[in-house]
Design goal:
The structure holds 2 protein chains of 2 kinds. By secondary structure, chain A is of the alpha+beta class. Helix content of chain A is 36%, strand content 19%. In chain A, helix 1 runs antiparallel to helix 3 and helix 12 runs antiparallel to helix 13. Chain B is built from 18 helices and 9 strands. A 4-stranded parallel sheet of chain B has the order 6-5-7-8, sandwiched between helices. A 3-stranded parallel sheet of chain B has the order 1-2-3. In chain B, strands 4-9 form a two-stranded antiparallel ribbon. Classes of the chains: A alpha+beta, B alpha/beta.
């Protein structure tokens, strides 16, 4: 029987396709890497996933799990063809138990939908990618996604208590438990998180949920010297404060935001820090005082505080506009994800940002830098004409130079967007002596390399 | 022929997936990625680059979209989603494939018939009020008179046209209804039939030469005349015209206690940016209420240019009517497609379990009905 007929037998005519148009729509994510699948399937249950994976195992064809396809590093792009498992129809919130601090969900649940449901009980699932409105929990698990608030609450891995996983041979296993703590042997849950779907297909997740902070406040501080950025973050930590978010707008970002929305009128300074504090009213009040004093002590030109929603929105308006601003710089240039996600030890942020400015100048590719400075994670956007091969190649070379610089400063090229197919080189360079062990683990789980091949490693 | 700039426009889409959370159609289909803007743009890319052949799924991907512009409005990257989809449709037409019109393409045929000269305009006999055949101030009914015989329910075309004439007359104007005007070409344009559209535009532009003011009652006609024609005359939607007349003190209304809400047609709202005029008018004489989603956030009635009437668009319209019923007793709209789609739903109470009780009324007709002698 043809594979498509077997897939139809498993999920029905409506949810399996080998139509060229449909397949083409699954050949990309937010990266520039492409790969055509041979089949796309939308399962709705663990049993269907297990049958599909068993079929793939028998036929030795790749299986590529996919949430909403919003990834940045080609984690769900079928670079070796095979079956794309579009999991967005597995979108049930199966259990919410805030008394015991957990929720159980299917992988296709949208992050914002889960938090809307939890908000009814004044709880939330803390990892907060910017793509909250459209990214799936499964995708967050695959990439170990984080976001602005991971400084305080941690990345996805810190909030996953247990998983149901279909292994590459079709076996269904469960890891972890419905308890906040579990030391049951090796931490397989943590291993599956951030594995880019290379070890198995996550079909259920037990997530840690916590009470929502009752009070929030924002502080914005303007600096005329880049060097002060690292110092101020360290000074804030020294007061005992862990901000919920600590975002940086570099001079390059300030410039494009002011071009795009002059009404936001950001000051002409070298860097802006926007810091969110949240918790009980008393704690937030104390933390705001600590942050303001730290910013002033380090030498901020100006420090603004906001407590009302309108005031907070005004301070965040610039940071929220940066993505849109970059896309509108030039009608011929998009902002593909090149050299876009890296991190360095906090005190080395100024050095890293100066490196980015140098690379931008040398490459002739203008760059806009911003990021989650509280954990040393930076993002760079480059306006590039992707139809111009020479310009694109120059941008990609500049992107590599950025990652090289981050590693030289003791940082990482893989902080929060996952690895996918686009950061394979950097995994090898960054993990060094641990790399063979990772390869060995992959072989234990997936000896035939059918589970999302061409991600994290390229195994011949 | 897709231009290099259009290809560059497609590259603006980063396929981030934001549209998956916004598209009301995708919320219903929960289907393949071809059913959302990101996928449609990728398919357009494949078609333009010769990497995809035209097949049924490709046609479905590019035509199952009312081009309501909600995704485009919210797109972080500013991708010109609707323009790209329309250009991709034009490629499909250029390569000889058929446009998948609903109602077996009847409305497309009607529009083609209006291209002919010397047609009998018997419908004019049904129009009440004082109008003339030519003049500087023109009322443009578009294809409204020809829809009614095709639809199997009372759309009220003659009433709407008569209502428009009444409004003109109350303001002391005797409008021209130029009987040989053709369909505005909105559907031809948005289905990618540019050659056909240009023929309609050329005929209408010739007949409208020398006029000073053109008023339409349909949002689609308004958007196409305003955006794609190069007319010397000012083009107004009837809501703008009525608003101005009220401001000039030329119209007065009997006040009513009726709870009324307005459905923003995507062609009037997001496509041409007019949200205020209908509200300003209605608020002068009714108990006006907003739906949960209104103005720039309004959700589409489900169809655009007679191209995507299917079970999903029917779910959309039911949702919208339910939303309206939560806010008001009467739903007003100002577009013949929205009116047709909503009215059609209300004719099927036996097929829809939870159909709410609400009146669906055209804006022009509602305004004229509530006019008071000054």
């Amino acid at each position: 029987m043809d594979i498509i007929d077997e897939l139809i037998q498993i999920v029905g005519q409506e949810r399996a396709s080998d139509d060229k148009t449909v397949l083409y729509a699954y050949s990309r994510d937010s990266s520039l890497i492409t790969g055509m699948p041979d089949y796309v399937v939308r399962p709705v249950s663990t049993e269907e996933v297990a049958k599909i994976v068993s079929l793939a195992s028998q036929r030795k064809i790749p299986i590529v799990p996919r949430g909403m396809g919003s990834g940045m590093e080609a984690g769900c792009v079928p670079v070796h063809g095979g079956i794309v498992l579009d999991l967005h129809n597995m979108d049930k919130i199966l259990e919410v138990n805030t008394d015991c601090l957990y929720a159980v969900v299917e992988p296709g649940v949208i992050h914002a939908n889960l938090n809307a449901r939890l908000a009814e009980q004044d709880f939330f699932f803390a990892p907060d990618p910017a793509s909250t409105d459209f990214c799936t929990i499964g995708g967050m698990i695959g990439t170990n996604a984080s976001g602005m608030t991971c400084l305080k609450y941690g990345d996805t891995r810190k909030s996953v208590l247990g998983l149901e996983v279909v292994l590459p041979d079709g076996t269904i296993i469960n890891t972890g438990s419905r308890t906040v703590k579990s030391d049951c042997g090796y931490d397989l849950t943590a291993l599956f998180v951030g594995a880019d779907g290379t070890l198995g297909v996550v079909t259920k997740a037990i997530l840690k949920v916590i009470p929502r902070p009752r009070t929030r406040a924002t502080v914005a501080a303007y600096f005329d010297e880049l060097e002060k950025i690292g110092e101020v973050v360290v000074a804030i930590f020294a007061t005992g404060v862990i901000p919920a978010a600590c975002e940086l707008l570099d001079r390059s970002a300030i410039k494009v935001i002011n071009q795009y929305k002059p009404e936001i009128a950001l000051p002409d300074v070298d860097a802006i820090l926007i810091i969110n504090l949240e918790g009980s009213a008393a704690a937030v009040e104390e933390e705001v005082a600590g942050v303001v004093s730290s910013c002033k002590k380090v030498g901020a030109i100006e420090v603004k505080t906001a407590a009302t929603r309108e005031e907070v929105d005004a301070l965040w308006a610039g940071r929220r506009s940066v993505g849109s601003a970059i896309y509108r710089l030039d009608p011929k240039r998009a902002s593909p994800n090149i050299g876009g996600d890296y991190g360095v030890p906090i005190k080395r942020l100024p050095e890293m940002l100066r490196e980015v400015r140098r690379i931008a100048e040398e490459s002739g590719i203008p760059m806009v830098a911003f990021g989650h400075v509280g954990d040393g994670n930076l993002h760079t956007h480059m306006p590039v004409n992707v139809l111009d091969e020479e310009e694109l190649a120059r941008a990609e070379k500049a992107g590599d130079a950025i990652y090289e610089a981050a590693l030289k400063l003791g940082g990482t090229a893989t902080p929060e967007h996952g690895i996918g197919a686009s950061k394979i080189r950097w995994v090898k360079e960054e993990s060094k002596s641990a790399y063979p062990l990772m390869l060995a683990i992959k072989k234990v789980f997936d000896p035939h390399n059918i589970m999302n091949p061409g991600k994290i490693f390229e195994i011949s | 022929m897709i231009s290099e700039q259009l290809l560059l426009d497609i590259t603006k889409c980063s396929r981030c997936g934001k549209c998956t959370a916004i598209c009301p159609m995708f919320e219903k289909t929960k289907g393949w990625d071809t059913g959302v803007a990101r996928g449609k743009l990728l398919v357009s890319w494949g078609l333009a680059r010769g990497e995809l052949e035209i097949n049924d799924k490709l046609i479905e991907a590019l035509y199952q979209c009312p081009t309501c512009m909600l995704c485009e409005q919210e797109c972080t990257a500013g991708a010109k989603v609707t323009e790209i989809i329309r250009e991709a449709r034009a490629l499909i037409v250029e390569r000889g494939a058929s446009v998948p019109f609903s109602h077996r393409g009847t409305f497309d045929t009607v529009a083609r018939i209006t291209l002919r000269d010397g047609l009998h305009r018997d419908w004019l006999d049904l129009i009440k009020g004082d109008f003339r055949e030519n003049g500087e101030t023109v009322y443009f009914p578009g294809s409204l008179p020809y829809l009614e015989p095709v639809l199997d329910f009372d759309l009220g075309a003659a009433r709407i046209i008569s209502a428009a004439v009444t409004i003109f007359n109350r303001a002391g104007i005797r409008p021209a209804i130029i009987t040989q005007l053709a369909d505005s070409g909105h559907d031809a344009f948005w289905s990618g039939q540019y050659q056909f559209f240009n023929a309609l535009k050329e005929k209408n532009s010739r007949l409208l030469a020398g006029t000073k003011m053109i008023v339409t009652t349909c949002a689609e006609d308004y958007s196409i005349l305003k955006s794609e024609y190069s007319l010397e005359a000012g083009v107004y939607h009837i809501s703008q015209f009525v608003r101005d007349l009220i401001r000039e003190g030329k119209l007065a209304f009997s006040e009513g206690a009726e709870r009324v809400t307005f459905h923003d047609p995507c062609r009037l709202g997001r496509h041409t940016g007019e949200y205020d005029a209908p509200r300003e008018v209605l608020k002068t004489f009714v108990d006006y209420r907003e739906m949960a989603r209104y103005g720039k956030d309004a959700v589409c009635c489900g169809v655009g240019a007679w191209m995507n009437c299917n079970k999903y668009s029917k779910q959309l319209r039911l949702d919208r009517v339910k939303e309206a019923a939560e806010a008001a007793d009467t739903l007003i709209t100002a577009c013949s497609k929205c009116l047709s789609h909503f009215s059609c739903l209300m004719t099927e109470p036996e097929k829809v379990e939870d159909l709410p009780e609400i009146k669906i009324v055209d804006f022009t007709e509602f305004v004229a009905r509530n006019l008071k002698d000054t």
